[in-house]
Amino acid sequence: MTDENSEIADGIPTPDGASHIIDTEYEIGQDNFEGSVGPFGFDIHNPVFGISGLAIVAFVFYTLALPEQAGSVFTWLFSSVTQGFDWFFIGAANIFVLFCLALIVTPLGNVRLGGTSATPDYTYVGWFAMLFAAGMGIGLMFYGVSEPMSHFSSSLGGVTMGEDGVRTDWAPLGGAAGNEAEAARLGMAATIFHWGLHPWAIYAVVALSLSLFSYNKGLPLTFRSAFYPLLGERVWGWPGHVIDILAVFATLFGLATSLGLGATQANAGLNELFGIPVNATTEVILISAITAIALVSVLRGLDGGVKILSEINMGLAFVLLLFVLLVGPTVYLLTFFADSLLAYLQYLPALANPIGREDTNFVQGWTSFYWAWWISWSPFVGMFIARVSRGRTVREFIVCVLLIPSMVCVLWMSVFGGTALHQVINDGYTAAQEASLELKLFKMLDVLPLTSITSLIGIVLVIVFFVTSSDSGSLVIDTITAGGKVDAPVPQRAFWCIFEGAVAIVLLLSAGGLQSLQSMVISTGLPFTVVLLVMCVAVWRGLVNERKHT
Amino acid sequence: MFQKIVVPVDLTHADKLNNTLQIVADLAMSHGAEVCYVGVTATTPTAAAHSPEEYAAKLTEFATAQGQKGFATSAKALTAPDPAVDTDKKLLTALKDIGADLVVMQTHAPNAADYIWSGHGASIAAHADASVFLVRD
């Protein structure tokens, strides 16, 4: 008998070193139901697959059958969550940032995900491209110009009070009435606040938790695993089922909503560029095309599909960023980038303050909305990041997931938002300021050279960003509904990819469907905030335990 | 005629491999060949093992047990972040690395799905340089 593991580079060269496996009698896949539908095999978790699938179908039918009632219920739910719990969202997000920063500076940052000698599965470029594309790629396209512009305009307008003594303006903090330079700084600080450390800290907590309990503790790659230190063996029963079902729900609806929003923006861009009509037919064709490309990607797997698309995306985004930086007001943008960063640091304590705020519209309509949105997206992005992050130390992981993407977001927002602001402040060109949300990017590009090419790249980026969200999302849902198995039959992931596209189309065609969906996604953010806070405790205990035993 | 027989195995379903393993034992003894058992596992915990290292140890143990039948054995564990899709690719690379001249593997009975997604056996038979012996379930 010889062991070839040590001889062949492609195998496992050396043991991955010590890690502290949790001793549980649960075997991955023990609750799974294996069978086949016609020629297609399946391997699904009972009851997570069935209940989440049925719940989604029921939701879609309810929204279609009773659109008005559904609309009012979800609008109420949306406003209740963002208005009643704004302090909770803001406070929790602060805790996530502090938690992540603490992990960087404490010895717990030395723990390696996957054991003391584990090596990373992906290079920095591939890894970074994937986590970034899944994390917030599309949002950067959608909000890169529009958000800095919105905050700038509201800040410039200053504070206005209603008869009841409550502020009616949407300016962040105290605004900057009549002061264009300061309004731009405050606008950028508020934008970076929503796209920088806080959202990435939310993703980092979820991803770290899943990685730790899966790679180091030997538990299935599902959400329930993070609760093992608190719930023990009960986590394999109904409490765990509920956690995983909620994660599936949030992921699928989050993706379906994004597919709808992406189709809207791509349609607007195609209309601007080629005069293609803006209507439901075009949007349905776009969603179908995005789903078809995502299907090919998901069938080619992580290496052959998702990673390649993510890298193409990063390359294209970088080209567009560089182009706008070079042909735009370069010196102004570089100064603006540094100044925006300083403005962010200057305004951060005030923006992150959860209590006693007077800028209620901004806090509830923007910050609270964003935090709920990021948190409801965290199951999907967190699990995807976890899936590709084995072999990194906790410190490396947090730095790369928290600080680097935050800096890229600052740069992106500074260049795109800065160019648009420069057009308004210095050139008096206000088309981007006045355009609808989905058109602002294209209006900003309108006055730069090579408009047709850059707008086309913009549209391609919007589409490919959605493809990368759709394919990685399908992988994530498939893993959760297969009880943490990543080698379930391939037709299952194809099913989720198609199902997700179908849900987006059906809801796009119904009156107010996507709006209801968005409200639903935001509403799932509330219970998940509690879940994430508990995860922080579990991660800390898990890491302390890991240090002690390895 | 054959010096190195490679047998891809799924440790999760090792109990269903009896026919294949017996054929492999007969071939190895009649040809005086060494048998290398190859397994592809995810980097995440699976039904077969909590970690890739545990999987490798179990595969080595499995190969040792097979060697009790009277032929030389070895084991090679491979990892893939997405084994549902990457298994065939990993196996084909391993066959070259090991220098296989015969591959014996179990496959399911063909069905309509094979027109869209071919099974591992069909894929290996189509692309491997070595001879391939597929054993139906």
Automatic annotation (TrEMBL), chain A:
It is a multi-pass membrane protein. The chain crosses the membrane at residues 48-67, 87-110, 122-145, 197-215, 236-264, 284-302, 314-338, 368-385, 397-416, 447-467, 494-514, 520-540. GO terms for molecular function: transmembrane transporter activity. GO terms for cellular component: plasma membrane. It comes from the Bacteria. Its main location: membrane. Coiled coil: none annotated. It is found in: Cell membrane. Keywords: Cell membrane, Membrane, Transmembrane, Transmembrane helix, Transport. Belongs to the BCCT transporter (TC 2.A.15) family. This is BCCT family betaine/carnitine transporter. It comes from Sagittula marina.
TrEMBL record, chain B:
Residues 1-136 form the UspA domain. It holds the Pfam family Usp. It comes from the Bacteria. This is Nucleotide-binding universal stress UspA family protein. It comes from Sagittula marina.
